[in-house]
Automatic annotation (TrEMBL):
<dbReference type="InterPro" id="IPR018298">
    <property type="entry name" value="Adrenodoxin_Fe-S_BS"/>
</dbReference>
<dbReference type="InterPro" id="IPR001041">
    <property type="entry name" value="2Fe-2S_ferredoxin-type"/>
</dbReference>
<dbReference type="GO" id="GO:0009055">
    <property type="term" value="F:electron transfer activity"/>
</dbReference>
<keyword id="KW-0408">Iron</keyword>
<dbReference type="GO" id="GO:0046872">
    <property type="term" value="F:metal ion binding"/>
</dbReference>
<dbReference type="GO" id="GO:0051537">
    <property type="term" value="F:2 iron, 2 sulfur cluster binding"/>
</dbReference>
<keyword id="KW-0411">Iron-sulfur</keyword>
<dbReference type="InterPro" id="IPR036010">
    <property type="entry name" value="2Fe-2S_ferredoxin-like_sf"/>
</dbReference>
<dbReference type="GO" id="GO:0140647">
    <property type="term" value="P:P450-containing electron transport chain"/>
</dbReference>
<dbReference type="Pfam" id="PF00111">
    <property type="entry name" value="Fer2"/>
</dbReference>
<keyword id="KW-0001">2Fe-2S</keyword>
<dbReference type="InterPro" id="IPR001055">
    <property type="entry name" value="Adrenodoxin-like"/>
</dbReference>
<comment type="similarity">
    <text>Belongs to the adrenodoxin/putidaredoxin family.</text>
</comment>
<protein>
    <submittedName>
        <fullName>2Fe-2S ferredoxin</fullName>
    </submittedName>
</protein>
<feature type="domain" description="2Fe-2S ferredoxin-type">
    <location>
        <begin position="2"/>
        <end position="105"/>
    </location>
</feature>
<keyword id="KW-0479">Metal-binding</keyword>
<dbReference type="InterPro" id="IPR012675">
    <property type="entry name" value="Beta-grasp_dom_sf"/>
</dbReference>
Amino acid sequence: MTKITFVQKDGARIETEGQNGSTVMETAIMNAVPGIIAECGGACTCATCHVYVDEAWTEAVGGPSNMEEDMLDFAFDVTAQSRLSCQIKVKDALDGLVVHVPSRQG
């Protein structure tokens, strides 16, 4: 299991464990993380699972695909750290991952 911490806008931290091969979004849904809506269920056809990858994890997570970048156009307050959590696969190399949940979703 891979540890993933979701930081809420108010600074509250929700520590979870994700199954390798699943996604960060699926981990959020399984743990009822507030602010991760995931309307499309992980199909990369909305922007309601938007997160900000903590800067310490940017390189390990990698950048978005072209399709993901297109969907991020529908998210609020997109930054260089923005990713759709449905597109981040959980793996051993991400053990300890920290992502920040935006104050609102697209």
